[in-house]
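Format is chain and fold; as here:
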Amino acid sequence: MNGFDPSSAAPRPRLLDLLRQHIRYMHYSLSTEEAYVYWVRAFIRFHGLRHPAELSHGEVEAFLSWLAAERNVAPSTHKQALSALLFLYQKVLRLDLPWMGEIGRPKLQRRLPVVLSQAEVAQLLSVLDTPPPSPRPQGPLGAAAAPYGLLARLLYGTGMRLMEGLRLRVKDIDFDRRAVVVREGKGAKDRVVMLPAALEAPLREQLAHAHAVWAADRAQGLAGVQVPYALERKYGRVAQSWAWFWVFPQAEPSVDPRGAGLRRHHLPDQGFQRVFRRAVQAAGIAKPASPHTLRHSFATHLLQSGYDIRTIQELLGHADVSTTMIYTHVLKLGGGAVRSPLDNLGGWGAPLAPSGAPAGAAPGVPPVAAPGGPRHATMPTLRPGTTRFAREPEPCYAACPPTPNCIAEATSVS
């Protein structure tokens, strides 16, 4: 009998597997895949493992309201969860329901980025140069400290994002042109950034270490590194070539998260983030700094050096100059360098005392005793024309005015 046997049919894939298939079909990144799977799983568990096809507008709103009210998530997290659910219903379940356009979307809040001063960056890099107490796991060449100091210098010196620096390959560094090619950055865009002269020798040393790891992998017959799309099938042994090897390889091989077996990956981002947080505390920096703060500091310090906003936009890879303009607000000194009226009142240390006079005393004005203790005992009285106040410091951007075309372009965008 040539009839169809239902028992021989392949089992229907589970919902989360279908979600992963559609995400990979759209060529989304691995981080997006992990985030969408996380939120869809949380949505299903929130409603007692019911299938999303059985749920409607009320259940979606209830889950999002629970995130905002009970979990107190940030607007960006709220928006990410909503995007995951919309992708599930529209792309995976193929449901075009009228209530999807009625779901409220959180309003994102624009925050000023955290920026470190050059002195703070130097102190932080000095701490990162110190090897941690325990070395990284045993590799083919023995235990060795991870090059976190070099990686941090590369992020600050080029403005790259953390994952862009970790995914750097040997072929992307051009010592002759003093350039680094950033491949598949945010938005799957490529760009070229400068190679700091101070990093040329350390990078060559790091490449020598990476080459020894690569040679050991080839001797062991280990699978090659991950390469984009179907290049490994098209060009044969491209994944085993030295040009495609990581600049910052991991000490031990690990299982590919998308099922490609055991192979060598780059350094994990979580390890560097943990070391970075400890280094910020050890450096005594009282700011919520993260590895991305080095990118913000790179852009701000370039603006302070007089580079125009368009050049910085290209180095950062921003699609719109309005995104780069946020760093012009960071440069402003306390409220746009406006002098506070409190400084015009004198009092605690504001007037400049002449040489030989006690601290806090104005010229020709005797101290007046005031009730309230010794803190007020020497507060001077003020007379017009007799008190010299401290000069207001110049704004940090006054010494390096922007170029005329920078102002014209920035104004046209706004």
Summary: The beta strands are 173-174, 179-182, 191-194, 254-255, 262-263. The two ends are 74 Å apart (CA to CA).
